[in-house]
Fold:
Amino acid sequence: MIKIVQSEDPVLREVAKEVPLSLIGKPKIKKIINDMIIALNAESDGVAIAAPQIGVSLRIFVVSGRIFDDDFIRGQGSIEGDLYKKARQKDMVFINPILKKISKDKKLLSEGCLSVRPIYGKVRRATRATVEAYDENGKKVVKDASGLLAHIFQHETDHLDGVLFIDKAKDLHEASMDNDEFNEKN
Ligand code: ZN
Structure:
């Protein structure tokens, strides 16, 4: 069982270090990514995870392929049509990600975090964002996103800079079963 650290852990407040490119694909980094995927998939409500959340101060985050599942996104209105795909997609790995081309257009969305349970709040973030990064094989990737995925990119890159969503959120509150906000956590 891989532990997801909680908000009082100082590792979440560090600026994470870049992964040396020569180490991408090597056992040490592969194991860290694998541990992140195991930890993420163990959380039924998890959509993404950053390496500091398992106590590793490196610039890596993983987005679960689960965010593209019909069952997962049904009933919550923040998903753009282009995310609406049938098949379970692969988890996506982003190493040394850089946020580019953030839209001026912003939207308030409810967010939670696997490291700040059980708190939710609303965060205003760009509705479109582009991330440039390396994948787990060291290949450079550029990914455009809108809606939920764009918010996730911003939440996760914040983690790599020691920022938690509670630093920026409005209406912080504990989750309850009777509200209708969506329950994903990053
Ligand atoms: Zn988080």
